[in-house]
Amino acid sequence: MDRRYARSWVAVVLFLVVFLVASTMRRCEKNTYQYDEGLIFGTFYHITYRSDESLAEAIKQELLRFDGSLSPFNDTSLITRVNQGVPVETDAWFEHVFTASQQVYRRTGGAFDPTVSPLVNAWGFGFKKGIFPDSTQVDSLLAHVGMNKLSLENHRVVKSDSLVTLNFSAIAKGYACDVIGQLLTDRGIDDYMVEIGGEMVVRGRNPEGKPWRVGVNRPTIEDGEAGTIEEVLQMTGGGLATSGNYRNYRVVDGKRIAHTIDPVTGYPVQHSLLSATVLAPDCMTADAYATAFMVMGLERSRALVDSLPGIEALFLYQNPTDTARIDCWVTAGMQKLILKK
After folding, report:
1. Which ranges of the chain does DSSP label H, i.e. alpha helix?
2. Mind listing the pLDDT tens digit for each residue in 77-87?
């Protein structure tokens, strides 16, 4: 064989080998997933995303800024100062959540209400663990509850009742998921799952190249009963949130008192709905409606969700005749996402 021809052939082979190796490395780099976790808002966050570099610090700093705006656990946050009556300008995050809360408040007939904290605390499920309130105390606190007593004017919260306070915990975790999701999207990341305290937003595919799989817990009715997965959802986009009464409750005279307080009546809800899982275009909306549905109960929630475009739901509830049995009601759109067993 001519030596020049042989050298040329070797060069071609080496080029192909290098090309294939480089191509494989590029594909591997593109399929590298990062995993970040931490503590924020008194709960944990877990974030998985496809990127060849870690964005852990950027994510942490964004969450800390968010905490400085909307966390009621932060003594210097914007929402804390608003509740203290300090004249302070609101920021874009606060105003977005405030406006969304007003909208859901109206659509749910007051079932979703970020001003309900005094009643939640009075019943012992908030920051304080006191004695159960009597009807006089409930009526007194109820007089200072209602999103209709607040408005936004020129970047300031205006109160018709100075004793009204805000707590966006039932919507802010979902919104924080959206904020981090947007941060990742702005960095050109198309595949991620952002989960904060059980609420989540997903986009694209998981590390296996498949839709993200999310388990919906089966409620536990009896004390000590082991939790199991009721359904598994396959998602490639959207926000998902679950709210439930079966884990956080108190027992009085042998009777369970649910942690969900009805902002309209001032009393804990008493109905068969055990958990509400909601899918929406964004996690903030899913978070708010999951909370509202747990106040409204099964029948009212079914009627409302059917009238809300882009909202899907899965409700788990106690069978009315056999209370040891848990039944499921699911919208058509949510049904399509359930992994077949």
Report:
1. 3-30, 56-70, 78-83, 92-107, 117-122, 135-142, 169-186, 283-296, 298-305, 332-335
2. 999 999 999 99
